[in-house]
Design the sequence.
């Protein structure tokens, strides 16, 4: 049985890139913004996903820019990752961004891997393989 990776990004090109990268080895579950990612996570329950790849700066529902920065901020990858960790999720989380060097303080204590977009997405596969070697195999 393939491990399930949730991919959340508001850029369809990035979704397609990650989908084609991951599909040979993983079952890919898609979300098109941070709210959808949280909804998918909550609906699937414990064991519903094995890992997550989140865009850092996602738009709100319907991929609309929200008027309030605070409202918009709750859909960013680090805020979604924090919701997952707070709910007890221990699987690997990757946060991708063009501005990965600015994320350090936002992800402190979250045990996430920061990946700068356009720097070799094969590193994502390497990270997942390493993390899953430490985590026991999924039930068949």
Sequence:
């Amino acid at each position: 049985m393939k491990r399930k990776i949730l991919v959340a990004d508001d850029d369809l090109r990035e979704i397609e890139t990650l989908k084609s990268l991951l599909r040979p080895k993983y079952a890919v579950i898609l979300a098109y913004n941070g709210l959808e990612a949280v909804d998918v996570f909550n609906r699937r329950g414990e064991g519903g996903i094995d890992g997550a790849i989140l865009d850092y700066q996602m738009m709100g529902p319907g991929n609309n820019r929200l008027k309030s920065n605070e409202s918009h901020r709750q859909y960013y990858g680090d805020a979604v990752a924090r919701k997952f960790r707070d709910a007890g999720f221990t699987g690997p989380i990757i946060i991708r961004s063009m501005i990965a060097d600015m994320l350090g303080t936002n992800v402190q204590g979250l045990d996430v891997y920061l990946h700068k977009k356009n720097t070799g997405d094969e590193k994502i596969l390497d990270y997942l393989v390493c993390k899953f070697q430490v985590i026991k195999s999924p039930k068949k």
Notes: The mean pLDDT is 80. Helices lie at 12-22, 34-44, 69-73, 77-86, 122-134.
